[in-house]
Amino acid sequence: MIIEMLSTGDEVLQGDIVDTNAAWAGQQLAERGLKFSRRQTVADDLATLVEVMDECCQRADWLLVNGGLGPTSDDLSAEAAGKLLGVPLELNQQWVANMQQWYRQKQREMPPSNLKQAMLPQGAELIDNPVGTACGFIITHHQCHVLFTPGVPSEFKHMLSHSWLPRLSDGDSTRVKRFFAFGLSESGLAQQLADIELPAGVRLGFRAARPSIEVKVFSQKVLTPEIKRVYELIRAQLKEQLFSEDNGNWAEFVQHKMIAKGLKLTCAESCTGGMLASQLVSVPGSSAYFERGFVTYTNQAKVQMLGVSSQLLEHYGAVSVEVAQAMAKGALAHSEADLALSITGIAGPDGGSDDKPVGTVCFALATAQSCFTQRLLLTGRTRQAIRETAAATALDMLRRYLNEQPIWGDYDLIRRIQTEQS
């Protein structure tokens, strides 16, 4: 299947707006084993739009046109579609009623200019947009189906998710199975799986999305014993580094396990500044297990909020396994939780030393009975990358604990300096 995308708008072409819609659509296709063969951006010029759309339709099975469905004079997509087909635009009364209802729900009066958004090419198939006023539609030209979509990201994503991607999936014969691992490089993972013999028609794809990495197995839709065997071989190779299948959201896994075990969690963060807690509560229902979080960025905050000894901070420094342990135990003492995670480190770009370079991060996982700590040197070119890897490493410690696996993982991208259990 040949799929192309055409983004419209001077503001996109000039770089005033970053085309996040195209990136998101590409990711959605990749998850289904599909891809764009071409992506183009065209200015707000009627003749150019018609010319480029005609060229695309002579090559593609599907053309996705994004933008130009608004109520202003530079929104030209519907008009271009009409000229492409050689048909007039007609006022779609059904969409007029939809827009009027949309404005009534917001207790606003619909401006007359919005009627332009109901002017569709004669014979076009209307595509609903319950989150906005831009009407999507589909036409066919040169046996190519052309879907016109709004440029507003929330409207674009809803329309693709509910009206277009299901159509592609129904006509697609590809199965995509995903495995998510942590602590491996893309090249290291590829090498680790290199000896797996793949049946005909089966291929592997790799996507590095720090701090995790994804392995995709593309195969035919029918799940055969040979394909199942590939899945089992990948599981056997990844072992404890495999943290999820099909869903790369660690927080969902943690939530499921914590609730199933009847456990409560708290966390104390320094260099991640609440990033860990934010990831945990991003999943609906997290209040069933996440008790509270502490962001103790300064030494004073560690002393006041967690009861960390000022002498301990002075002797070992804030970035030490001793302080990480005190933070985790202090979080337990000042909460109603059963488990506590703590993170303290140097995210950079400044603040490092020969003994503790930028990327040095200390972690602790504490229970009422024991505490596991480790000091790692995280790789990352930016402050944000180090913080993201630190939050992921803490989640990996928790995942391993909940799975009754060794707490300290074997990472090829992270250097372990020190581990302790008390």
Automatic annotation (TrEMBL):
Annotated ranges, domain MoaB/Mog: 4-171
Protein name: CinA-like protein
Family per record: Belongs to the CinA family.
PANTHER family listed in its UniProt record: NICOTINAMIDE-NUCLEOTIDE AMIDOHYDROLASE PNCC, NMN AMIDOHYDROLASE-LIKE PROTEIN YFAY
Organism superkingdom: Bacteria
